[in-house]
Specification:
Elements (H helix, E strand, L loop, with lengths): L1 E5 L6 H9 L16 E6 L3 H10 L3 E3 L2 E6 L14 H8 L4 E7 L15 H30 L5 H18 L11 H7 L10 E6 L11 H10 L4 E6 L1 H9 L2 H11 L5 H12 L2 E7 L3 E8 L4 H8 L1 H5 L1 E8 H7 L2 H6 L4 E3 L9 E7 L2
Parallel strand pairs: 1-4, 1-5, 3-9, 5-6, 6-7
Antiparallel strand pairs: 2-4, 8-9, 10-11, 10-12
Helix pairs in contact: 1-8, 4-5
Length: 363
Amino acid sequence: MKLGIVGLPNVGKSTLFNAITKAEAEVANYPFCTIDPNIGTVEIPDNRLDFLKKIYHAKKKVPAIVEFVDIAGLVKGASQGEGLGNQFLAHIRETAAIVHVVRCFENKDITHVMNEVDPLRDIEIIDTELILADMESILKRLKRLQKAVRLNDKKMLAEIELAIKTKTHLDTGNPVRTLKLNNDEKILLKDFFLITAKPVLYICNISENDLSKMSNKHTIAVKGKVKNKNNQNIPICAKIEAELAELPESDKEAFLKNLGLKEPGLNHLIRSGYNLLDLETFFTAGETEARAWTIKKGSYATQAAGTIHSDFEKGFIRAEIMSFDDLFTLGCEKAVKDAGLLRSEGKKYVIKDGDIIKFRFNV
């Protein structure tokens, strides 16, 4: 899971990035302090993995990870190169989803690039620049396709038709993720590498004064604008997350409790990212290690095997599966087996979140 963090300058992007990755990227009260993208990986918290390590006496646990890319603040005109925009837009194309940080706090000491806090205007600015960037990309692709097309090349003709359909949609000022496509078109669209085809997670960066309600007039406005299946929005206080990241593990629980929070905002962010990208987790466990693996919801057993190693997928025989809930309830693998809850599944078994799997294969 690779997420690109975007937003206008001085909205809290780098503060949030530092908090969730402890990467110590440069943070300053002026635009474009982030020039090259900062990249950091974060272990995904999952208490189930701790339980598996204990039950199997595993030497280590290996959590799934999420990669964050902190991209420089975009400004109006970024698609035309304003504020070094073009090179930063290229970095966004490499991510699976966009984390759009929106300023939803008032602070006279932190300059807003537009001199006034207005999250809906800020969202529109970023959306417009990304749409314009995609429009330029589509026009170039369409021109190239039309020069090379042969009447008997069905795939290229389908690409031209899709490019025209996409251009028409972008012309209306709407992102590609809101365009209705059939399955064949969705497959073709992946090769277009369009920014606005990616789902978006909006982070409403609030002040510590709004933590008790996790809401204010700005977050309410954002929620009303972006609520649909291709977008999600969550409130996070980047400043508090940064303070939390500096504390030793032993002090974090008390810090959160004092603020009336049950968990760090990072946990909420990761869960939302998983949901946005239709991801889930399965596990492998033994004496060597207990490991979490990330796959798309609806993946078959063979696809899960291929996530571990291509040989597992090619030589797949069967998957021996039990659910984490069963193991947790019964306490050990033997008890799960004795209860008849250890199953043998074939290639077309659809993996479920929390499945613990042993793959049998032949190479």
